[in-house]
Design a protein that fits this description.
This is Glutaredoxin. This protein has about 90 residues and is α+β, with helices and mostly antiparallel strands. The protein has helices at about 15-25, 40-45, 65-75, 80; strands at about 5-10, 30-35, 55-60, 60-65. Strand 3 (about 55-60) and strand 4 (about 60-65) form a beta hairpin.
Length: about 90
């Protein structure tokens, strides 16, 4: 099973949607609380190559982007292989 990490912020509807999709798929993931101005947010920005929005999602250390990117992968049928579910 791949390692999945998601940087989120309280009250973020996009974060909620992304987490809900991962939970629906039964994926184990680590949610990292990363409000603006925190070291966790800075880590997310660095790891994502400068993306400042949340969520930022990483599968096996590879940044896949945010909520829209996650749902795009799902629509194309490309998410399950990344999650080891194909």
């Amino acid at each position: 099973m791949p390692s999945v990490e998601i940087y989120t912020q309280p009250g973020c509807p996009y974060c909620h949607r992304a987490v809900a999709l991962l939970e629906h798929k039964g994926v184990a993931f680590t949610e990292i609380n990363a409000p603006r101005g925190t070291p966790e947010r800075e880590t997310a920005i660095q790891r994502s190559g400068g993306q400042t929005t949340v969520p930022q999602i990483f599968i096996d250390g590879q940044g896949i982007g945010g909520c829209d990117d996650l749902f795009s992968l799902e629509r194309r049928g490309a998410l399950d292989p990344l999650l080891g579910q194909a």
